[in-house]
Amino acid sequence: MTEIEECRRSLKENPFAVYLGIELLKVEEGLVYARIDNREMLHNIYGDMHGGAIYSIADNLAGIAAASYGYYVTTVNGSIQYLKAVRNVEEIFCEARVIKAGKTISSVHVDIRDGAGNLYNTAEFTYFNLRPKEDN
């Protein structure tokens, strides 16, 4: 099973990730790229994609990027910058890139853009490496 197939399987087993509608497009060590439809069920009362949905998408994908080094991970800290409301776009694209892969702590930067490349959100996450994946 390839790494992207394993990550897709893992996402399908995560009910909340399924609800968010995350579609993995690319997974490499330290990098995850995904597409998410801007569905009405993810909107706030103003018709924009809800900030909590955006944060959850970013956290899920940053976690996959951090775990791509062979660890199970858990979020220690996360911060998001809502630069522009996600409205009037059919889909968003999320890129999560590891900026520091440590033995116990990893840091990940996230960009969320529309299909034209316009930046909507940025985020930073820190993860604790729980144990190597082969220690099942």
Structural account:
There is one protein chain. This protein starts with a helix and ends with a strand. It has a single domain (3-135), classed as Hotdog Thioesterase (Thiol Ester Dehydrase, Chain A), CATH 3.10.129.10. The chain is an alpha+beta fold and 136 residues long. It has a six-stranded antiparallel β-sheet with strand order 1-2-4-5-6-3. It contains three helices and six strands, in the order ααββαββββ. The model has no long low-confidence stretch (mean pLDDT 93). The radius of gyration is 14 Å and the shape is globular. 24% of the residues lie in helices and 44% in strands. It has helices at residues 3-12, 15-20, 51-67, and strands at 22-28, 31-37, 71-82, 91-101, 105-113, 119-132.
List the helices and strands and how they pair.
Elements: H1 3-12, H2 15-20, E1 22-28, E2 31-37, H3 51-67, E3 71-82, E4 91-101, E5 105-113, E6 119-132
Antiparallel strand pairs: 1-2, 2-4, 3-6, 4-5, 5-6
Based on the coordinates given, report the CATH architecture.
Answer: Roll
Strand content: 35-45%
Distance separating the two termini: 17 Å
Counted by DSSP, the helix tally is 3
What is the overall silhouette? globular
- Report the major sheet: 6 strands, antiparallel
Uncertain segments: none
Kindly summarize this structure in a few lines.
The chain is built from three helices and six strands. The chain has 136 residues and is an alpha+beta fold.
